[in-house]
Here is the input.
Amino acid sequence: MDKLISNDVKTEELVLNMGPQHPSTHGVLRLVVELEGELIVNVKPYIGYLHRCFEKHCEAMTYPQVVPYTDRMDYLASMSNNLGYAIAVERLMGIEVPERVEYIRVIMAELQRIASHLVALGTYGVDIGAFTPFLYCFIAREKILNLFEMTCGARLLYNYIWVGGLSHDIHPDFVRLTKEFIEYFKPKIVELNELLSFNKIFIERTANVGILPLETAVNYGVTGPVLRASGLKWDLRKNDPYSIYHKFDFDIPVGDGRMGTVGDSWDRYFVRVREMEESLKIIEQAIDQIPDGDVKAAIPRRIKPPKGTIYSRTENPKGELGYFIISDGSVNPFRVKVRAPSFVNLAVIGEMSKGHLVADLIAILGSLDIVLGEIDR
Here is the structure.
């Protein structure tokens, strides 16, 4: 009888569809999961459900008209998308922006980094089963959105950082309110750590789950907190400085395997927590040094770059955002290609998930902090 069972009874792999369901899969993402029993054999991401033809649209737009479309890629980091595009076109044209503009851009980019990470951390708590940290994170994020709304009138899609300058100067109360936010937010990070980061259940769900070895991360081209959590101290603000980041003193947090193994889901989570602390340091330094000046002084009356190409990259909250622009000498870009960090980071999910349970896949996906608006573009 035993021989009959061992030879004739066969098991088949189960194919499970997860998504496309927003916000459960952090956007309209479909994961096809191959299971053997309860263990994951393979995961294949299927994308394209949110495709809006950003790169093709750019060919029909003038250079300034592209800026609002950049907002809609990673819509949780719109300021950072604006910044990356503006820097690319400015390099293509040889534009040098006023120092006041540079300082305000850095402050806005770091506030945006904190706001983006707060969404990542709060929703990650929900993924794992902790709802309260989500509310705490969003209360803090609202204060940043208040600063953005005061500056440009918008809370999500800003069209604020223009080629050559800014759409508006900062409000007279901006410096004071930003300093108040810094003092408010510092103890909130400690509170978040007590509530979620060092919670026993949260650690058990994330430590040693979805381990991403450094060699694998580098081979896949992974960037941002996902790469740094695997142990590599790589941040474009330090390694390939742009704007005025070279003027500020800050550190680059990396994963250290404190709760499990270097490059696990907990490390990816905690690198973002520590990055918020470093962003506060940058903002503190910048807010006290803003020089006077006209934020629109360097904006050209007509933006018409010479023929040529440019690849420019910036450190977005999710990783390296790159713009490759081909100019044919007209007022419209001939081609625009975007290197979206979420797109690249998602590719590694299959390698990280093999041998884990389905519940672990939820933790792994959340630890990548993807946005489908950026992946599909």
